[in-house]
Design goal:
The protein has helices at 3-11, 18-29, 35-44, 49-63, 179-189; strands at 70-76, 81-83, 88-96, 108-114, 122-124, 133-141, 147-156, 162-173. It is α+β, with helices and mostly antiparallel strands and 222 residues long. The relative contact order is 0.13.
Length: 222
Amino acid sequence: MEVDEVVSQLGSLQTNDQEELVNQMMRLVGANINFSSARFYLEMNQWNVQAAVCSYFDLETGNSKLPGMVFLQDITIGEGDSIPPNTKFVKTWRVQNPGPDRWPPGCILRFSTGIQLAFQDRVLVEPLDPYTAADISVEMTSPANPGMYESKWRMSTATGNFFGEIIWVIISVEVAGTLAITQQFSKLDQLGSRSANLNQNSEYNPFRSPNKLKFEPPEQME
């Protein structure tokens, strides 16, 4: 049922018949509530159907089981890595769904406390199957002034409930920071890809010309 429809129906409830009020609340909430529970919420709210419905959903949301998330490791940016001022970088965490349920749709990674280093304060995360891991990346920018900075993030459901462990990034902003150069070289390494027919013992060089990947002896002159 759409929210507008619920509001419209709540506004048209004019009866003082308690049994009819219970039936109306059951129709609004759906099959998840029985007659006794609906009567309990109505009595608790002086037979105000709108207040009773709100109390029901507030309580059910608070008691609903939340997903789980555990931090596994930092993929990029270890604690205290040095970064030059005003430099873009990508922070990547590896996290796991400890189960037993799959993450619901609409889960997001949200900035919670500390220094906001990212342009956006939330990143949509694909639902994760139980007992599987995934990498979550956020593009950030180092502050202009040197110093130590910490930014904490948490997973959240689509309804805004936090769950799982807190994850964070801690950086040291230094004029002579080397992290930007490190990530640039990492991107260069990904420009080339190993060919399936390369010998596993051969040394890989992403800057090598493709026609030099395989050594062929020169033809013998007659």
